[in-house]
Amino acid sequence: MKLKIAILPGDGIGPEIMTQGVAVLNAIADRFGHEFEYNEAICGAHAIDAVGDPYPDATHEICMNSDAVLFAAVGDLRFDNNPTAKVRPEQGLLAMRKKLGLFANVRPVATFDCLLHKSPLKDELLRGADFVVLRELTGGMYFGEKYQDDFKAYDTDIYTRPEIERILKLAFEMAQKRKKHLTVVDKANVLASSRLWRQIAKEMEPDYPDVTTDYMFIDNASMRVLTEPTFFDVIVTENTFGDILTDETSCITGSMGLQPSSSLGEHTPLFEPVHGSWPQAANKNLANPVAQILSAAMLLEHFGLNAEGALIRKAVDASLESNVRTPEIQVEGGAHYGTKEVGQWIVDYIRNA
Question: Which CATH number is 1-108+258-353 given?
């Protein structure tokens, strides 16, 4: 298969983990006879420094003309520590989602048996947890009308019926392909926008009679994903709740450096790790490349290359079982492996499989 892939390394540890993600894709291309064409583009703080825009038109054109986008991370301490900055790296990420029409963020949450001890949760709670969080990505407070002065500020949490229907349709269909259980997470006892979410979900339920649908307030869901993670199959929720909930689920895997994601919608699909840019660790060979590598696996699986994605997952599992891990998840007394060493081990496994 031939694929044109836009490569957006971004800021901080982004370029380092992206190097490993691309190396894994190259190993897969060689192993299975595929042809991947890469086009790199700038975004985030790097793009602000270069052209004054965190998501330049030239970058958007490359993304639109590609079959998929492999993205790493944006963010820089210069902007984090300056709340008055008018242009911020994260604005580029929001602009990219909006312009590409990426309304659905898909974040799988699964455990690795050899890493259960790295989670703050008890092994018996975690074992067997395997669910997906589907987060609406282009609506809600992040994109609603905003205002701020020295006395007052507000963010408008606005959703329309079409925005809600399209993400719920995707959620119901995803549940049908999994264990046929959908949980709609909202705050319908307080928020009008959540009541519309629940109303529409109730209207759509009869169209999916094979799916068991339940409803949960966000505060309860935040507790249940940590106390009873095996309860869930597919969770669907709005933008702000989804942002918080999906970061919380890193407690289940033991590290945010293990969680990949995809963003789907109207145009080019995007694949990215869920963690941030971690600028403090940039160029120190410390960052875990696994989430970036698993995002590459999700990219391949999106195009039906399931055997290729499965081999990447097998290689990652083997690396973890062999204690080839970056420091934040390494066993006590284990050998030191950095970003490059972990990536190379996984590449070698794929080439020798």
Answer: 3.40.718.10
Asked about 202 being catalytic, the answer comes back as no
The model scores a pTM over 0.85: yes
219 flagged as catalytic: yes
Tell which phi-psi region holds residue 208, choosing left (phi > 0), alpha (psi between -120 and 50) or beta: beta
Among 187, 208, 233, 337, the active-site one is: 187
Looking at domain 120-253, which CATH architecture does it have?
Answer: 3-Layer(aba) Sandwich (3.40)
Residue from 142, 159, 337, 349 carrying the catalytic annotation: 142
pLDDT at 115 over 80: no
142 is a catalytic site residue: yes
Q: Which of 30, 49, 57, 219 is catalytic?
A: 219
- 111 to each of 79, 127, 230, how far by Cα in Å? 34, 7, 11
Q: What is the CA angle 85-91-93, rounded to 5?
A: 150
Active site residue 247: yes
- What is the pLDDT, as a whole number, of residue 353? 86
Chain segment 286-306, per-residue pLDDT in tens: 999 999 999 999 999 999 999
